[in-house]
Each structure stands twice: as structure tokens, then as C-alpha cells.
Amino acid sequence: MPSVVSIFEVIQVGVGPSASHTVGPMRAARDFVTRLLAAGVAFDRLRVELQGSLGATGKGHLSDGAVLAGLSGYVPDNMDSEVIPSLLTAVNPGGNLILPGRKTVDFGFSRDMVYAPKTIAPYHNNSLLLQAFWGQAPVFSGRYYSTGGGFVTRDDRLEGQPGQLTSLDETRSGGVIPHPYSAMSELVDYAQDSGKSLYRIIVENELATRTIEQIEGGLDNLSHKMGACIDRGCQSMAAILPGGLGVPRRAHALYLKLSQRDGAPGTPAIWRSFAQDPMRVMDWVNLWALAVNEENAAGGQVVRAPTNGSAGIVPAVGRYLTWFCPRVENHQVEALREYLTVAGAIGGIIKTNASVAGAEVGCQGEVGSAASMAAGGLAAALGGTPPQIENAAEIAMEHHLGLTCDPIGGLVQVPCIERNAVAAMQAINAARISLWGDGKHRVSFDEVVQTMLETGLDMNSKYKETALGGLAVNVVEC
């Protein structure tokens, strides 16, 4: 039977700058230390090996600091942005790490934090090996794979012995939920056969493990967190993003210019400006996406949807929905719930059948997936039929095929921040194109997702979050 990924696994609160390289390693380390302490084995030293893409860009993505945070007992959804920098500062000279329960363990950063970009595990390019030692002998080990979007798989197979891969994420069995699906075609068929909306079907699946109050409360919390992140990014007075590239933060200056010219949201001034410049909506959507991704690049709290590197798209399009779509003026809360629910389901289908990891399929899996989620969610919230919703998601993904992941310096800054702004507008455009049609389309969503996967697997590893090709090598870091 098909398994369905919960929308609350696809869209989650996290910490920047990367879901696969920051959030995933933190969750893996937290799981490792929990199991280590529960095992009751004696140990006096820990060692971490970041492998593959994690080893190649782990410093820029703060993967090393994220592992330290996880080992210290932190989780991404309630962690202050200063935790990782403070841990890196404290551990580097001291060589000690404080684990949950106040246990202090030897950890020499230069000795015990190993970057191994050429070590490629067979299951996934984002792998990390954590070990506990007693003296020189390893006494407890854990291998984990950060598979994109903050999803983590633990490898329970011992060397030369049978075992299994265990997901740390919430995937529901098809026997538990009323409408099991793994493809968009199946979801659309459910809707057309039953006469229900995609939103209703997805909510009924979520009801298998949550109450309606928990579902609606969870969606409202995600909406609130997204809006708060936009507002923090717009109001941040910081001039330069961390990391050494010297990339300036632009959202605050743009926010001031638009606010001065357009007036406060909802006032007549904003509509007068649109009469003079009908394209002004693009400026606001660009602002919101830039604001979120600047917060992410600075290590702040974001909502990954489906990844941190693409975290600006779904929030920006969501605010477009409530600011610039009169259709939902009298039911904005409900519209945002439908938007996020359908977006999350689209992301779950992509995750199930392809990947949302830049290290596996390039940026088409991150920004392409986020644009697809936003486009389909927007079409749903604006009253689109199931075929129109599928068409919107397909259009957005189709026109991100082949997009590479080649961040300069391994930092989630260039081209990532601007790319989110461009993709947010593409998502809106995809939804509008679909809504003006009748839902009939030549290329299905499932076909374009399969194409994205095959394209990503064929893509040279230089263009999959290794900082070994593209802009990462052709632009001088200074």
C-alpha cells in the first residue's frame, strides 16, 4: 500500500541556513546522543565525520555547529540563532562538549570533527558517522543520512550484518489513512471520484493521526512563523550577511522604500501606487522572499518548505494570497490553511517519488519543489479544480528542470537568496496560467517529477551542493 508523508513533515519550523546540511545533521546528532546515553555504555570521547556533500560544504552550511547543537540536546524548532555560533566558539579552544544531563565529554574540534567530502556512502551523498570512544576503542556508532528537507534516515545495519534503514520522520502506513496515495494522479482521482476537494482529502488523511484542532492549530502556527520571519527580515538592521562573502542584506532598505512609497498595508496609498505601476506586486513578493532567505542565511529561525534554501517561496506566495487576492479577503485564515495543506501534500509527493535535496538532484529539487508547492497551493486557495491545481504544480516544476545547486563558498546566499524571489513570482505565474485554463494539460505532474529525478541523477556532482562547479568556481570569493 502507498505511504503518505504528513504535511507537517514537509513544512516545519527549523533553523538556517540549510535543511539538509544544518537541520538534518542536528536531528541526527540529537538521535545519536539520545540512543548513546540510553545504552548506558561508558565513553569518554566523541568523533564526528561529515561525509560527501556534508563534508564538502559543511563549514558554510554550519553542519559542524549543527551536530554540536544536536549532541548538546538542542532541536531545530525551538533553538535560538546564537546557539551554534556560541558552541563553535566554546568547543574550539576548550575541547569539551556538554551533553544532555550535564555530562561533559572530550571533543577536540580539530581532531574529532572530520570533513570527508570524498567519502560517498552508497545510500545518499549526505551522510555522517558519529562515534563514541572509550580510550582508543569505539564503543557506540551511528551512521545517518540527511536526505533533504530536514528528513533523516538512520542506518541500523552493522558492518557485515543484516539490518535496516530507519526513518526518523513521520510516514503513515496506507492501512491507517483513508486515502493512501503516492502520486498526484491518485490524489486527483480520489477528488474527482468523491467530489471532494484536494484540501478535504488531505485533511482527512491527517485526521488519522491528529485531531482537527491540532491540524488547524499546526497550520496556523506555521502561517504565524512564516509571517514573523518575513517581518524580522524586513526589519533587520544588519548590513552584511555572515560567512565572509560580504553579501549585503537588502530587504530592510527595500521595505522602507516600498513602505514610504506605498503606505502601510491596506491603506489607500498602496492602491494608488498600483494604479501608477501595476507591476508593484512583484516588488512586494520579491521583498518577502528576500527577507526570509536573508534570515535563513543569517542562521535565523525559518519554516522549511520543503528546504531552508527554498524557504522564502511558500511564505512570499502566502502573503501575496492574503494581501493581493480579494477573493480570500473575508476568509484569509481558512485560505492560508488550504494553501499550506495542498502545498505540503505536493511536497510530500515530490519527496516520495524524487528528492528535495540539492545534494541529490540539484536546486531543481529545492527551489523547483518549493515553487511547485506554492503554485499548487495558491491555485487551490483561489478555487482551482483538482486538474488546475495539478497543472499549476506541474508548470512550476517543469520550468525549473535542470537547475543546478552551486552556491558560492558553500553558503546559502548566492544565488540562493535572489533565486527564491524569482521563483516566488514564477509560482504565482504558474498558478495564474493554470486558473485561466480548464485543467487539461499535456504533461502530468507525476511525469515532470520523474523527469526531475532522472535529470538530477544524471547531473554532474559538481552541480549538486558540492561548491565544485558553476558559480562556486567561476566567481571569486572576496
Characterization of the model:
- This protein has helices at 7-10, 19-39, 53-57, 63-71, 83-94, 109-112, 184-194, 198-206, 212-235, 251-262, 268-276, 280-297, 313-324, 332-353, 358-361, 367-381, 386-398, 416-435, 445-458, 471-474, and strands at 4-5, 12-15, 45-52, 96-98, 104-106, 113-116, 126-134, 137-148, 151-155, 165-167, 171-172, 301-304.
- The strands form four sheets. A six-stranded mixed β-sheet has the order 6-3-7-8-9-10. Strands 1-11 form a two-stranded antiparallel sheet.
- The chain has 478 residues and is of the alpha+beta class.
- It has two domains: 16-171, 60s Ribosomal Protein L30, Chain: A (2-Layer Sandwich); 184-474, 2-methylcitrate dehydratase PrpD.
- The chain has 20 helices and twelve strands.
Question: Which secondary structure elements does this structure contain, and how are they paired or packed?
Answer:
Blueprint: E1 4-5, H1 7-10, E2 12-15, H2 19-39, E3 45-52, H3 53-57, H4 63-71, H5 83-94, E4 96-98, E5 104-106, H6 109-112, E6 113-116, E7 126-134, E8 137-148, E9 151-155, E10 165-167, E11 171-172, H7 184-194, H8 198-206, H9 212-235, H10 251-262, H11 268-276, H12 280-297, E12 301-304, H13 313-324, H14 332-353, H15 358-361, H16 367-381, H17 386-398, H18 416-435, H19 445-458, H20 471-474
Parallel strand pairs: 3-6
Antiparallel strand pairs: 1-11, 2-12, 3-7, 4-5, 7-8, 8-9, 9-10
Helix pairs in contact: 2-4, 4-5, 8-14, 9-12, 9-13, 9-14, 10-12, 12-13, 12-18, 13-14, 13-16, 13-18, 14-16, 16-17, 16-18, 17-18, 17-19
